Amino acid sequence: MTGKGYTKLKLLYIKQYLEKYSDEDNLVKADELLEMLSEKGIDCERKSIYSDISALKNYGVDISNDKRGYRILARDFELPELRLLMDAVQAANFISAKKSKELISKICNLCSKHQAKILEKQVYIDNRNKCTNEEIYYNIDLINKAILQKKKISFTYIKRVIDEENKEIVREEKELTVSPYALIWSNDHYYLVSNNSKYDNLMHTRIDRMKKVEITSEPSRDFSEVSPYGKFFDSADYSGKLFNMFSGDTRKLVLRCKDSILEEMIDRFGDECKIRKSVADKQEQFTLETKCVYSEGLVSWLMQFGDKVQVISPESLRDDIVEKAESIRRIYCED
After folding, report:
1. Residue 147: what pLDDT?
2. C-alpha to C-alpha distance for 232 and 230, rounded to whole angstroms
3. ω into residue 228 within 30 of 0, thus cis?
4. Which pLDDT band holds residue 5 (cuts at 50, 70, 90)?
5. End-to-end CA, the chain
6. For 124-169, what is each residue's pLDDT tens digit?
7. C-alpha distances in angstroms, 210 versus 190, 204, 314?
8. What is the DSSP string of 120-176?
């Protein structure tokens, strides 16, 4: 191949080859580049490789070269960053096993072939914990478009329930039309935060249980009518106040906690929560004040800490925890 066109292709082929086969521990020799170019129908001399490498370096590609060969040093993603991305894909239950493998393969293309082998050896995908809904990626795209266009969406929502007559698990389907506001990843699931116009609150639906998503021509209800947000829906603030994706009213929460769970409390409520030592606090205890969504999820979350947490207010939450604990006690006492 000769002419001006081949020169441009030649630079692209060299860059692509270096990205695929070189890294900090593996070099590519000039002879390898000449052989690769020859296989693609481009005949050139060794000295032209030197000028091509120089051109790529001037363009901004971080190439190290010495007598032993060439290698790409800086990439868009470092190896630990790619590891984090792969771990996120592996852990995400809402991504199917098939799509997980495809995404991990694409992530591996962001590093050299040698590095990809190291990453792939550490990959294990448990098909049992992955969803089987292959529509999820198409649905996410449609939902994002609907949010930007401020349009309602319609879909079929699937839940697993027990058929009391046949005593078996069946799929229950329900047709819904909602105003979509945000997508939230919580507790290893992907949720849509939306409003059903029949009610004046927010609802959560799992993306992996949604089928046949369509954007309607009907405008969405403004989220300011059903949430405390005005100019924009603050999904980070909203998800931070939720417990296990249960919806409810936002209330002031006051807890008395043992010092041993300080880290867990800060991890959950953030640095913005008020933590202090009061006169009423005993040794190795602290008082925490914050705002969160009052729900069944909050009750369950607090109960996991046993006697390490005491609810000071609201009084209704204290009553709910006592009632829940009593119902658990009754179950074990009936046997």
Report:
1. 94
2. 6
3. no
4. low
5. 85
6. 666 666 777 788 888 999 999 999 999 999 999 998 777 777 667 7
7. 11, 12, 36
8. HHT----GGGS---TTHHHHHHHHHHHHHHTEEEEEEEEEEEEETTTTEEEEEEEEE
